[in-house]
Amino acid sequence: MSVSQADVMTAMSKVIDPELHVDLVKAGMVKDVRVTGDTVKLKIELTTPACPMKGKIQADAEAALKAVPGLKSFDIEWGAQVRGVAGGSGGGGALLPGVKNILLVGAGKGGVGKSTVAVNLATSLAQHGAKVGLLDADFYGPSVPLMTGTADKRPVSPNGKTLDPLVAHGLKIMSIGFLVEADQALIWRGPMLHGALMQLVRDVNWGELDYLILDLPPGTGDVALTLSQSVRAAGAVLVTTPQDVALADVVRAKQMFDKVHIPVLGIVENMSQFICPHCNKSTPIFNHGGGRKAAEMFGIPFLGEIPLDLKVREAGDSGVPVVVGHKDSPEAKAFQDVARNIAGRVSAQSMKSVPLPVMQAR
Predict the structure, then answer these.
(1) Does the pTM exceed 0.85?
(2) Is 85 annotated as a binding residue?
(3) Is 318 assigned a ligand-binding role in the annotation?
(4) Of 60, 194, 212, 326, which is the most buried if we count CB atoms within 10 A?
């Protein structure tokens, strides 16, 4: 019995992407199907190299092909092509046409490790093979230069009008911390902040990016609101610690993103619990489970929890993110799981047919 290309496509149409809730054929993920007698070669192109469901998709695809009558052998090539939130190559809109997806990392209050999450999230996505940029938009406390080991470097301008981002750990990086003295306090009002922020977004040579991670300042002040209103974002990630006082601030952050029509992709619980390095006993220093509870209350995904560990702090101070310096540690794996979950949520967001609104700050 001969096998046809139609037989293969029919089999693949029965495989559902668990994150997108559509079959692989409808999602346009089946490519280059070549049938030779009773063998077939094809390519499955995932919507992100950090796909959290690749194992499930692979198992289902192989089972579907094994069920094709007359097919004796098959070879699946795996690839990934990140899609922009508006369905095109430039999800960042006119402001950032080469950027497919802009992700905002925010928190309702300071001290919850938002920048640590942003740095390790960006680095994890880059480790999976994505093209990633990281913009430190926390003007009052820019910590990305220290955390990425770039604090002693300065960006250059090739033409006197735009800046080339710095590169470290596979990331393109820009921060206001590169442009002011380390001990200089920024005493700027709203209009000055808006202008400087838009310059860092617009006048940096980001090039082609799958993801641009924006580390927002804590709270719901001018910078966070301006940025949220001026770019088309794939979504926001909220970072919290488990205790009630932090969770109360998450409510306000969620409300801000709702008002500017930016979907919240989910919640990350940082400093979730302390694991003793000597006895492996877990101690919920800041409580535990509050992030999951808040996610359930809002009806949004819980993206994962990051344990409280000395290695994470030391990694940030040394300029080598824990996912790089201790990539096999439980803490690094927790960040990597969160990154995959976020990438999956962005892929699901990109499948929606209605483009997200672009609002202009006034």
Answers:
(1) yes
(2) no
(3) no
(4) 212
